[in-house]
Specification:
- Belongs to the glycosyl hydrolase 7 (cellulase C) family.
- It comes from Dichomitus squalens.
- Keywords: Carbohydrate metabolism, Cellulose degradation, Glycosidase, Hydrolase, Polysaccharide degradation, Signal.
- Its EC number is 3.2.1.-.
- GO terms for molecular function: cellulose 1,4-beta-cellobiosidase activity.
- The protein is mainly beta.
- The protein has a single domain, classed as Glycoside hydrolase, family 7, domain (1,4-Beta-D-Glucan Cellobiohydrolase I, Chain A, Distorted Sandwich), CATH 2.70.100.10.
- Helices cover about 10% and strands about 35% of the residues.
- The protein has a 15-stranded mixed sheet that branches.
- Strand 8 and strand 9 form a beta hairpin.
- The protein is globular.
- The chain starts with 19 loop residues before the first strand and ends in a 5-residue tail after the last strand.
Length: about 450
């Protein structure tokens, strides 16, 4: 996730958010089949489920249906301070299909962009649960590969269908923070390298201190604290652009930040996490004919995405040294594109050498290297990372960092500025939410296992 305060992008239009577990709506997790492989053509299906992030959920008083949070304001009587608010308020179960446009079918998950029921909901974020249905599945992917199919044919400019990993607590922080009674069963404990400050509850406390409503999103805002952790963006994409991006932090595991630690605004490169990451975006790296409608990787059709996490000794005990990408479409294995930037060596995968060369060629600040690079990303996978899938629009930067020219105040001819073919206004949230309300993304056929076993 690239822009500062990027999670302002999620439009929380269903009044939600909490730390106690409510009982007014039964929480039933949609089932999703995944496969664990041991060798080529030897994969075993596993029954899992998904859970909706707590920030989307209805938040009400524990003893009634009175909202604790309405629009972008907290109820001061229920929430006079962070701890009391967490004790007074409960997040409730979700109607996944009818309220949030989230459906599963066997090994397939579809996320609809806008869903209109009793209220309007925009976007969603879900996590994969383990077999116990109450904790997040944690993936340890060093010397492993992770593969999935994605259909983004209904995902235009300005939207992002994302699949990624973050270093959340398996129980959503329930054991570490006594005021969090809901835990991963209700999707608590989110964190990423943007250190998002729009998360309503962090470390079991309401993020109400310094809360300021968003100027562009009537249902979102930011508080004093953010929530940080290592993040591996395996897939951020729409029909017109895609990026794979590791981000790292100087801390291990979910960590609450404040002030300079969060890296907000002018302090973007002074925080504890690398917000820019080291991205491999084929268009940005000089190949404008590789991925898109009718191109080598044809985004009008479903495509299989293979990501391999190689180590320096080809063992799970080694240090993460390379992230490789392959595609499979219509029975054909497609090698990743190669960089084509003047003055930059040729690369087709993410290594520390690639990251350093890319940062130098584009004139970008290299916090990825200073905060530990691929080795630190490997440390996070060693601990285990939760799988996230989402669909969202961007109230902060219009998703231009993914599919258009960005930043907008420098010439598009400068190396690294052009990231996709979309226009400067294509990601305006008001336009996207009205004109592309029926957009969706489908992830399916998730597989993981040793290198070469999943495709």
């Amino acid at each position: 996730m690239f822009p500062a305060a990027v999670l302002l992008a999620f439009s929380f239009l269903a009044t939600a958010y909490a730390q106690q577990a409510g009982t007014l709506t039964t929480e039933t997790h949609p089932r999703l089949t995944v496969s664990q492989c041991t060798s080529a053509n030897n994969c075993q299906q596993q029954q899992r489920s998904i859970v909706l992030d707590s920030n989307w959920r209805w938040l009400h008083a524990t003893s009634s249906s009175t909202n604790c949070y309405t629009g972008n304001s907290w109820d001061e009587s229920l929430c006079p301070d962070p701890v009391t608010c967490a004790q007074n308020c409960a997040l409730d179960g979700a109607d996944y299909a009818n309220t949030y446009g989230i459906t599963t079918n066997g090994n397939s998950l579809t996320l609809k962009f806008v869903t209109q029921s009793a209220q309007k909901n925009v976007g969603s974020r879900v996590y994969l649960l383990s077999s116990d249905d109450t904790t997040y599945e944690l993936f340890q992917l060093k010397n492993q590969e992770f593969t999935f199919d994605v259909d983004m044919s209904n995902l235009p400019c300005g939207l992002n269908g994302a699949l990624y990993f973050v270093e959340m607590d398996a129980d959503g922080g329930k054991s570490r923070f006594p005021n969090n009674k809901a835990g991963s069963k209700y999707g608590t404990g989110y964190c990423d390298t943007q250190c998002p400050q729009d998360i309503k509850f962090i470390n079991g406390e309401a993020n109400i201190l310094g809360w300021t409503g968003s100027a562009s999103d009537p249902n979102s805002g930011t508080g004093q604290y953010g929530t940080c952790c290592n993040e591996m963006d395996v897939w951020e994409a729409n029909m017109n652009g895609a990026a794979v991006t590791p981000h790292v932090c100087s801390v291990q595991g979910q960590t609450r930040c404040s002030g300079t630690q969060c890296g907000e605004g002018d302090e973007r490169y002074d925080g504890i996490c690398d917000k820019d990451g080291c991205d491999f975006n084929s268009w940005r790296l000089g190949n404008e004919t590789f991925l898109g409608p009718g191109l080598t990787v044809d985004t009008r059709q479903k495509v299989t995405v293979v990501t391999q996490f190689l180590t320096n000794n080809n063992q799970t005990s080694g240090s993460l040294s390379e992230i490789r990408r392959l595609y499979v479409q219509n029975g054909k294995v497609i090698a990743n594109s190669k960089t084509n930037i003047p003055g930059m060596a040729t690369f087709d995968s993410i290594t520390d050498d690639f990251c350093n060369a890319q940062k130098e060629a584009f004139g970008d600040t290299n916090t990825f290297e200073s905060l530990g690079g691929l080795a630190q990303m490997g440390n996070a996978f060693q601990q285990g990372m939760a799988l996230v899938m989402s669909i969202w629009d961007d109230h902060e930067a219009g998703m231009l960092w993914l599919d258009a020219d960005y930043p907008t105040d420098v010439p598009a001819t400068n190396p690294g500025v052009s990231r996709g073919p979309c226009s400067a206004t294509s990601g305006d949230p008001t336009t996207v939410e009205s004109q592309s309300a029926s957009a969706s993304v489908t992830f399916s056929n998730i597989k993981f296992g040793p290198i070469g076993s999943t495709y």
